[in-house]
Amino acid sequence: MAEGGLALKAPAKVNLALHVTGRRADLYHLIDSIAVFAEIGDRIEISSAERLNVSLSGRFAAHAPGDRTDLAWRAAEAFFAHTGLEPAVAIRVEKNIPAGAGLGGGSADAAAVLVALDRWFETRIPPLVLGAIGLKLGADVPMCLCGAALRARGIGEEIERLQGWPALPLLLVWPGRPVSTAEAFRTLPVRENAPLPALPPPGSVQDTAEWLALCRNDLERPALALTAEIGDALRLLRSHDCLLARMSGSGSACFGLYADIAAAQAAALALQKDRPGWWVEAALAR
Predict the structure, then answer these.
(1) Residues 187 and 152 in one domain
(2) Whether the predicted model's global pTM rises above the 0.90 cut
């Protein structure tokens, strides 16, 4: 067991493209998606305790359940059920990612809790086994366990890590209105769509933006019908000279891809003045 305390970041997951390609008999949707992970995110801290306890803090703590239905709680319980170890740790989750934003906040927390507990107890669970535990918690958790540029297929569990992708300067914008993932999927007009085009060779940020322009987020249209603020966020991003603007995941957060981080930061300052109530963060994503 590790001594003292242990801290890990749970980075925000950004779906640069998300094609819905079908639906299984059990109603899980099939996807073909490109995801990257931003330098910003939640923070997970582990320390010794007499019994398992999970506490939340941070700007968006009130948006999370804060009880045993929270994905951080469920991840800890799944870890201890798998290992048979005594659940005697305190887990503190600093919530910096908004919930219901399509940035994988809860899934990122669950993945970070699994990794942190594996390190804390030195259990050395094989990655494939840890991924299987994560998949039972949610389809996005295996992606967050990868934590690097990836292509995800199936329901999200078929993961191909992407080599040579550039660090992408992103501006992330959340207009303050969550979107229900289930509702976005429910209102999809078509569920059998074409997969991603052939992946590009490693290239520049500009090359990546040009390839991403050939892709789409199939959930953007139904999410726009549910939350008009998404359209406002996309218009504002496009008005600040981004290479590409799109909704992430099931929304309602959107991203702008910029030529460099200085341009993303400049746009962030402008949007923060224009929409002071919004969550606006510039960051590199890999």
Answers:
(1) no
(2) yes
b/e sequence 201-237, b meaning 16+ C-beta within 10 Å: eeeebeebbebbeebbbbbbbbbbebbebbbebbebb
Domain CATH code at residue 116: 3.30.230.10
Q: How far is C-alpha 153 from the chain's CA centre?
A: 15
Distance CA 11, CA 31 (A): 21
pLDDT interval class at 66 (50, 70, 90) = confident
Residues annotated as part of the active site:
13, 140
pLDDT of residue 63: 86
> How far apart are the C-alpha atoms of 42 and 147, rounded to whole Å?
13
Identify the band that residue 195 occupies on the pLDDT scale cut at 50, 70 and 90. Answer: very high
The tally of CA atoms less than 13 A away on the side-chain side of residue 86 is 6
Does one domain contain both 180 and 221?
yes
Pairing of strands 89-94, 53-57: parallel
Specify which residues 8 forms β-bridges with: 44
Token representation of residue 269: 């300052």
Report the DSSP pairing between strands 158-161 and 254-257: unpaired
Note whether 153 and 183 are same-domain residues: no
Residues 134 and 228 in one domain: no
Alpha helices in 121-260 (DSSP H): 127-137, 141-146, 181-186, 205-212, 220-226, 229-238
Q: What CATH number does residue 271 fall under?
A: 3.30.70.890
Whole-angstrom distance, CA of residue 11 vs CA of residue 112: 9
Task: Report the length, in residues, of the chain.
Answer: 286
**250 has a pLDDT exceeding 60:** yes
Which of 142, 161, 180 is the last residue in one of the domains? Answer: 161
Domain end marker among 161, 178, 198: 161
Name the pairing type of β-strands 279-285 and 168-174. antiparallel
Please count the structural domains in the chain. 2
Residue 148 belongs to domain spanning: 5-161
